[in-house]
Amino acid sequence: MELKKIAGYAAAERVKDGNVVGLGTGSTTHYFIERLGERIKEEKMDILGIPTSYQSFLLAKDSGIIITTLDEHYIDIAVDGADEVDNDFNLIKGGGAAHTLEKIVDESAEKFVVIVDDSKLVDALGEFPVPLEVIPQACRTVSDHIKAFNGIPSLRMAERKDGPVITDNGNFVIDVKFETINDPAALEKELNSIPGVVENGIFAGIVDEVIVGTPEGVKILKK
Ligand code: 5RP
Predict the structure, then answer these.
(1) Which atom of ligand 1 is nearest to 131's Cα?
(2) Element counts in the chain: helices (H) and strands (E)
(3) Separation CA 31–CA 127 (nearest Å)
(4) pLDDT tens for each residue of 96-105
């Protein structure tokens, strides 16, 4: 947790007075949002936040961050976590099932900063299964498509609720394990072309900067 915290806190220093900020989802962005809220109070900053989930919406509210929407404002900087980051800054996201709105927010930002602990850095994506947000009625048909290109689909089940995880948008999540992912950008497009897939958790080619929490301190990776 300490490594996530130092990455999240370092990212909060990237925000400038007047910024509209995309607020990612997960335990690492929890620290970012918490520290951003503190800065807003301490420095009387004029900041608007655009959440990527109910989790970040509620946390932003508790942290005193004024919320706005994508309809009303453009995003200066988005800060979000990731489940895997490869050497070209391609990501797998969606461990928290929030990747659809995360992708909309993160991709639209002027600058997209990823915050992770060093366990998330990988040479090639794919150890972590790729989450697909799927229209519930398309569960079987999407799974059949996935098997046809050698993925192993698994419907994500909820904890402390019977049955499957239901996303913030009312859909299911299918996690797909691939043997290898050689071309993340191509796979991202292919998965989204399956009828019933709302969005997948590969984020190829949209990251500007990665802030990594390591035992030696914060490391900044830039392209
Ligand atoms: C949620 C996400 C998260 O950003 C990702 O799962 C990383 O989470 P954490 O910071 O808790 O490790 O994509 O959908």
Answers:
(1) 14
(2) 6, 14
(3) 25
(4) 999 999 999 9
